[in-house]
Amino acid sequence: MLNRYPLWKYLLILVILVTGLIYSLPNLYPEDPAVQISSDLALDERRITQIENALTDADIQIKSLEEQNGQWLIRLRHPDDQLEARDILSDILEQDATVALNLAEATPGWLQALSASPMTLGLDLRGGVHFLLEVDMEAALTQRLEVNASAMREILRSERIRYRNTEIDERRLSFDFASSEDRDAARRLISREFPDFDYESPGEDRSASLVMTLTEQSINEIQDYAINQNLTTLRNRVNELGVSEPLVQRQGPDRIVVELPGVQDTVAAKRIVGATANLEFRLEARPDTPSTETETLSFRNEPSRTAELMRDVIITGDSVSSASHSFDENGRPQVNINLDGTGGTLMNRATRTNIGRNMAVLFIEHKTEDRVVMEDGEETVVRDPYVERGLISLATIQSALGNSFRITGLDSPTEAGELALLLRSGSLAAPIYFVQERTIGPSLGQENIERGLMSVIVGLLLVVAFMLIRYKVFGIIANVALALNLTLLVAAMSMLGATLTLPGIAGIVLTLGMAVDANVLIFERIREELRNGLSIQQAIHAGYERAFTSILDANITTLLVAVILFSIGTGPVKGFAVTLSLGIISSMFTALLVTRAMVNLLYGTKPVKKLWI
């Protein structure tokens, strides 16, 4: 009875192995490159035939054509044909439909019913885009000064302190007053509410001014807030894009890295990720409002049409808690807005006292324009930032508004959808600019996969050959366990939704070597016990029992290293750590339990005269 398991243990091992096999199967069915057609109008048979003929004439092989939830999905044989297929379909359908690139699941239905899905591939294997973004820290300071200036003007007006104009110059904010008494009174009021400034009072009597300069501490706090808020906003936007396993992380003091695996429509991704749009809600100026408190702005869709607005802002897009796009009663696109508690209070306070007055929605977008200049005989690209402002709508306040209302006057459903997305994900605390853009094509990703698989196969074959030559029958048992270990590792990564990258493949190769390490210890121990004169059954039992401590110590220390790598590492390092951790766990199971079960079934039920090891 030394080398026998109870029935329940055999059944448990069998259930785990069968489950692992089932959940590793989806990886045999990689996603198909596809083109997706979305249209409000049903595509008839004539149009479908026209599409098929056009793709065939362009020598683009179609794998299948299917309809899903009112959308048509055309699966292609080769990923290199996607862009050409999209252009052809866009020309055929024109404005009747939206054509987008897609990667369609190819997992059989019975596996999907079991919630089985393939591993997610990283940027280096799947292809995608890599963006390096730079946060405009000076713009962040300017924006904060503008918000502070608006709040200060509100305080001065409420206390009836007269001021002439407001100026923002780099990191300074200044007010001009009619007299030094007004200036001193303003300084006492403002300094209590805004302690983040150093205050100066140049000039006397008629030329009295109050100059406020941001302190170094407040500058650092604003810049840290800007990049952290931008990180949060970018993560929200990327999640809205539906990208699997994106990477959004800080790099250095003012840069952010964004990696989007599987994204092939780089123009759309860049437009959404890099959009620095925000909204401002302002009241239209009254005829008797001083010119220093107003500014004239034009409409986005009608540049010749203008309106004069108050400089003070009621709320910005930062106060939006949720947004969705739909259509109004006339079929025109609109965005439905829900404000947070503070935003709803400010909106209600501004509108209930201004019923009958017009309120404008101002769309603000930060952009850059590159120009080439000659410096020391070399061409250098200089980036000039600029701001585009345009009115979306100007509507009369019919009643006091609360937390919910809608924005109309948008040009298209696409514009409404993108505006709703940007408002949902939050606005950027400072403009961001693209410093670097790198695209990894699907073909390069496929080449990485093929080379990674080749490394796994070569490593597997070398290990298999060594075990067969060294341990004969027991080598066969170890190799079967090694194959099962690889299957369980793939199944675990698929079930957990872990991302497979090139470093992850390196972790798999390392796991293959470590998986047989335990078997080597066990088999060598059995040999030693046989030389010491134990019987075959006693040697097998002693080999597994006495090698257990060494195997556990070696694997626990490696697992601790993998956990540390995962906790302090980023990107590729984490991918390696995840694969290594799962590989250690699965190799412990197969080396200690699975091989023991096979040895028990082979040798534990009958007398053995010679052991082939």
The structure class reads: alpha+beta
Radius of gyration: 33 Å
Any idea what the CATH architecture of the largest domain is?
A: Up-down Bundle
| Number of beta strands | 23
User: What about the largest sheet?
Assistant: 4 strands, antiparallel
User: What share of the residues does DSSP label as strand, in percent?
Assistant: 25-35%
Here the CATH topology of the largest domain equals Multidrug efflux transporter AcrB transmembrane fold
- Percentage of residues in helical conformation: 40-55%
Average pLDDT figure: 81
The name of the CATH superfamily of the largest domain reads Multidrug efflux transporter AcrB transmembrane domain
Give start-end ranges of low-pLDDT stretches: none
CATH class membership of the largest domain? Mainly Alpha
How many angstroms separate the termini? 21 Å
Query: How many DSSP H or I helices?
Result: 15
Strand neighbour order, sheet with most strands: 2-3-1-4
As for the number of domains, it is: 4
Shape: elongated
